[in-house]
UniProtKB/TrEMBL annotation:
Protein name per Swiss-Prot or TrEMBL: Phenylacetate-coenzyme A ligase
Domain of life: Bacteria
SUPFAM superfamilies: Acetyl-CoA synthetase-like
Keywords: Ligase, Nucleotide-binding
Role played: Catalyzes the activation of phenylacetic acid (PA) to phenylacetyl-CoA (PA-CoA).
One GO MF term: ligase activity
Family: Belongs to the phenylacetyl-CoA ligase family.
Span of domain AMP-dependent synthetase/ligase: 80-284
Domain AMP-dependent ligase C-terminal: 333-426
Keyword set includes Nucleotide-binding: yes
Organism: Caminibacter pacificus
Top enzyme class: ligase
Catalytic reaction equation(s): 2-phenylacetate + ATP + CoA = phenylacetyl-CoA + AMP + diphosphate
């Protein structure tokens, strides 16, 4: 275990949570015009928070709120105190921007060190990090904490499968960090070296997340690589990876609840559900400075349970995410909303807004096809350039590699009610 707090008594955890909740509520009330206005509309002041349950009086925050305040409108520190920016996809054109102070970076590193500690990572380990480096929180999120623990970090970033495998072999990687689908893809390519391919690798554990998985997929990754599978959950709006991580003793993922306060709500009514019931995960950051967030609706469906865990940690556990409350798609770890795809199509000439998004698997990786009807007056000879332009825009604006298929007007089946825009064939 990395920190004593991870196995503290529930009363002690709750004491810290309440103290921090009061602090964060006071912070946003005094420093954020956005929250001040929301609180005033509801007739609430920081004095209304007397118990943890009083959090239910507070308003929710949604992705759209971050977008409406793009880029830095929800920050509660001057930019001179912001030392890092990351971003993820918004619901349409603009991304969601998040910021960190030095203190926020310390919190992030702390929770990521707890994450690595799940697998007893030490200076003897070589951590191969194949999460994408850049604005995505995956790459850099896993980077610094490994370094701080004295492990050797290999900042491989995404893509280039053969090269990654070569680096993993030659540098003797013991820990693999990447999306679960990329871990399977790596294994599939590595297997071409022969059935005994694992002899050339020293992997012992991996930290996988950023996309939904089934129990079967988690087992498969652990089996093909013969490693311990640790699941990591997180989201940029809250911090990035490090909100929770599984241990090697019990089910579920331990939430770092001294920093992130979880609730489960009914996504339709917003009502808080009792422990153990499945619903949408809502998180309040308890210690963030640059971008404190009150009751953020993650859109992720899961359940919480507080039963003690065999590993000794007392932090509440969440089940692996079973789905989304909204229509967000995750394509090879990259989040994309259908509304963003529509936005790109609408910005392009020669095509109409009759389109369909088809998500499927090619081997272990996700593939995305976007079928779009062209305008009536578009000639066949123009298809190629329109397709290339659209694909370029999807990659540049949304970071997704999509195969665009242009079809004649009227080719996409019309529905009587809501248009069926998304076909997700993935198992
Ligand atoms: O995906 C942070 C991350 C990076 C987590 C690396 C784990 C490993 P975002 O790009 O903001 O941040 O996407 C957040 O991804 O709301 C979930 O829908 C999904 N997600 C993240 N982890 C898991 C997981 C990163 N373990 C969104 N299982 C979240 C299922 C996950 N979905």
């Amino acid at each position: 275990m990395w920190n004593e707090i991870e196995s503290a008594k529930r009363e002690d955890i709750e004491k810290i949570q309440l103290k921090r909740l009061k602090e964060v509520v006071s912070r946003v009330y005094h420093l954020s015009p956005f929250y001040r206005e929301k609180f005033e509309k509801l007739g609430i002041t920081p004095d209304d928070i007397k118990t943890l349950k009083d959090i239910q009086k507070l308003p929710f925050t949604k992705k759209q709120d971050l977008r409406d305040n793009y880029p830095f409108g929800l920050f509660t520190v001057p930019m001179s105190e912001v030392v890092r920016i990351h971003s993820s996809s918004g619901t349409t054109g603009k991304p969601t921007v998040v910021g960190y102070t030095k203190h926020d970076m310390d919190v992030w590193n702390e929770v990521m060190m707890r994450t690595y500690a799940m697998a007893d990572v030490t200076s003897k380990d070589v951590v191969h990090n194949a999460y994408g480096y850049g604005l995505f929180t995956g790459g850099l999120g896993f980077h610094e904490a490994a370094q701080k623990m004295g492990a050797t970090i290999v900042p491989a970033s995404g893509g280039f499968t053969d090269r990654q495998l070569m680096l993993m072999r030659d540098f003797g990687a013991t820990i693999l960090c990447c999306t679960p689908s990329f871990a399977l893809h790596l294994a599939e390519v590595a297997r071409k070296e022969g059935p005994e391919f694992r002899r050339d690798y020293k992997l012992r554990a991996g930290f996988f997340g950023a996309e939904p998985t089934s129990e079967g997929m988690r087992k498969e990754v652990a089996k093909v690589w013969d490693i311990e599978y640790y699941e990591v959950y997180g989201l940029s709006e809250i911090i990035g990876p490090g909100v929770s991580c599984s241990c090697n003793k019990g089910r579920g993922l331990h939430i770092n609840e001294d920093h992130f306060y979880p609730e489960i709500i009914d996504p339709k009514t917003g009502e808080v559900l009792p422990d153990g019931e499945e619903g949408e995960l809502v998180i309040t950051t308890l210690t963030k400075q640059a971008l404190p967030i009150i009751r953020y609706r993650t859109g992720d469906i899961t359940r919480l349970y507080k039963e003690p865990c065999a590993c000794g940690r007392t932090f509440v556990r969440m089940e692996s995410v079973s789905g989304r409350a909204d229509d967000m798609l995750i394509i090879n770890g990259v989040n994309v909303f259908p509304s963003q795809i529509e936005h790109v199509i609408a910005e392009n000439e020669g095509v109409t807004l009759n389109y369909q998004i088809v998500a499927d698997k090619k081997g272990y990786l996700d593939k995305l096809e976007i079928i779009v009807e062209v305008d009536e007056n578009v000639m066949q000879s123009e298809y190629d350039s329109i397709k290339k332009r659209l694909q370029h825009d999807f990659l540049n604006n949304l970071y997704i590699n999509a195969n665009v298929i242009l079809v004649e007007p009227g080719k996409i089946e019309r529905s009587m009610g809501k248009a069926k825009r998304i076909i997700d064939k993935r198992p």
